[in-house]
TrEMBL record:
Its main location: membrane. Residues 13-399 form the Amino acid transporter transmembrane domain. The chain crosses the membrane at residues 12-31, 43-70, 127-145, 151-178, 190-207, 227-245, 257-284, 304-329, 350-370, 376-397, 421-443. It is found in: Membrane. It is a multi-pass membrane protein. This is Transmembrane protein 104. Keywords: Glycoprotein, Membrane, Transmembrane, Transmembrane helix. It holds the Pfam family Aa_trans. It comes from the Eukaryota. InterPro entries: AA_transpt_TM. Belongs to the TMEM104 family.
Amino acid sequence: MAGGITDTGEPYSAFVGLVYMFNLIVGTGALTMPRAFAEAGWVVSLSLIAFLAFMSYMTTTFVIEAMAAANAQLRWKRREADDTSNINKQHLMSVENFFPVSTERSGHVDHFDIVERVEMGQMASMFFNKVGVNMFYICIIVYLYGDLAIYAAAVPISLMEVACLFTLLLGPFTFFNAQKTKYLQILTSVMRWIAFTMMIILALIRIGKGAGEGRPPVANLSGVPNLFGVCVYSFMCQHSLPSLVTPISDKKRVGTLVLADYVLILGFYVLLSFTAIFCFDSSLLHDMYTLNFTDNCNVLDIPVLRYFLGLFPVFTISTNFPIIAVTLRNNWKTLFHRDGGTYPWVVDRIVFPLITLVPPVIVAFCTHNLESLVGITGSYAGTGIQYIIPAFLVFYARRHLEPVMGRDAVNKHRSPFRHAFWVWFVVAWAASCLMFVTANIILTDTKK
């Protein structure tokens, strides 16, 4: 996952939405993918990453369908409330006549238009019971903690020194709000494109000169669990889709937009990983791929460019950290929120920011293994957010809407994978992956 949540405050075109989505997905996970790609073998890695891209695309369409369903349900409830409050009405509008009457009054309004931004937490509250809502918030909080721990540990210099500096400089933002990130996103997006393009070109030049050192294995199943976690993390965007899709001015081709994005991102990840594993000896690939260019003058001997690539993760992480921290803090507040209640000033301004900031910083002090952090975060919390939650959201959204809107109501943003089989396939896949990853961790620890 990458560049935070889009919050420009203005509608934008489908093309801009495509660019935002690309930038949202391609980030820190991409920098850890080459090593995971090499460890699992290039044939296994290529097959797994293609399949996981397909699975992520499927659940992305689930979330978009659920967003449209949530917009339709909100419109229905408002209309129902208006009808109830109008004492001059002779009778309430029947469910069967809802669509023709509302169309006649408002001039062909499609109730499944995604106009109002409905975040995943709100959708969970609409479609899940209390237990499901709490499970959703626990899952996303764990994921965001993992995100912050990865960011705090990813600064490519002495961990102890940088963790202190990193926390002192960026930690205070957790106590405030992060808004209007448009220009921040533009800056980090430009830097991201320059850095990734440089790394791909430099690796291709070295391979072209016959100086490539990589001899990656074809297959190594022991590397699959970690690659799975890294890939899930690297395709993560589902939790930010409401903020990304809602501002698109023309949503007629949202499905095509999402498909094109996933094809582009898959191609980019494969290109980055293949150039990496054939350019560098697999055993020498760093957790943070940029370090392979900064500590080897044979690859890049221009000091300015070496410093740029070395500091690139610091810049991008520094801009993302406050956004993710504020998101996590707000989710903690929502989880414990009581209707009509407010938090004391100390709890609101001190306790919540501290419980947001302290755990990931402790993790950053305790571990240097960025690849494992990404793998564990993706394998557990990432699986919940990317697979399980979207599957259940779309399942219960369909169940909620049928008695309200009727069977004839057609959600124009419905997923191409509309059969219930696909929902249960995703759930079964996620459950089997969790069991496989857990079993592998237990067996690995037992051998040690």
